[in-house]
Amino acid sequence: MSWVAERAKIEQNLNYGAVSCWQAAVEAVKDCCEDFNTNYDGAVTFSMNNGEVIVAVSRVGAAITMKFDSTKPAILVSVNKGNPRVFQISADEAGAFIKSFGSGQQRITADEFSREALEGTLFASKPTPRFASVRGV
User: Fold this and answer.
1) Model confidence over 37-72: pLDDT tens digits?
2) In what order do the strands lie in the sheet with 107-108?
3) How far apart are CA 55 and CA 65, in angstroms?
4) Which domains occur in the chain, in start order?
5) Most distant CA pair in the chain, distance
6) Out of 17, 43, 85, 128, which residue is the most buried by the measure of CB atoms under 10 Å away?
7) What is the spatial distance between Cα 67 and Cα 117, in angstroms, rounded to a whole number?
């Protein structure tokens, strides 16, 4: 296969795979919110409105907004409407994938994306676990 065919394959993978990456990221974020509510005190709500994901963290008074930008393609994540962090979506011969935020921009899974996007806000102040702690053992 020539470099032209390889390039065409990569462009095709990006074109068809970017939306799938966004959908996987949304599902991972939704799962993370459900797991947080199961395991910790403090309400975290997940909602979608006009293609935008909003995660409200009432315990710390924060709202995390995520949206898909098909022109880049990328996922934009902002906390309390601040400057967005841009998670690029890229592709190779195997398919499309999300890149981590920052200078390294390594390939990450949807679950790793949810951690990078949510962890700093969800755990900004230590939440109380729902399981009983063991003391004096």
Assistant:
1) 999 987 899 999 998 999 999 888 999 999 999 999
2) 44-49, 52-57, 62-69, 74-79, 85-92, 95-99, 107-108
3) 7
4) 3-122 (3.30.920)
5) 67
6) 17
7) 12
User: Nearest CA to 64 among 129, 123, 130, 21?
Assistant: 123
Q: What gap in Å lies between CA 45 and CA 52, rounded to an integer? A: 14
Q: Is 122 exposed, middle or buried (0-12, 13-18, 19+ CB in 10 A)?
A: buried
| pLDDT single digits (tens) 71-124 | 999 999 999 999 999 999 999 999 999 999 876 779 999 999 999 999 999 998
Crossing angle (nearest 10°) for helices 110-122 and 3-39: 40
Q: Distance between CA 3 and CA 32 in Å, rounded? A: 40
User: How far, in Å, CA of 25 to CA of 73, rounded?
Assistant: 14
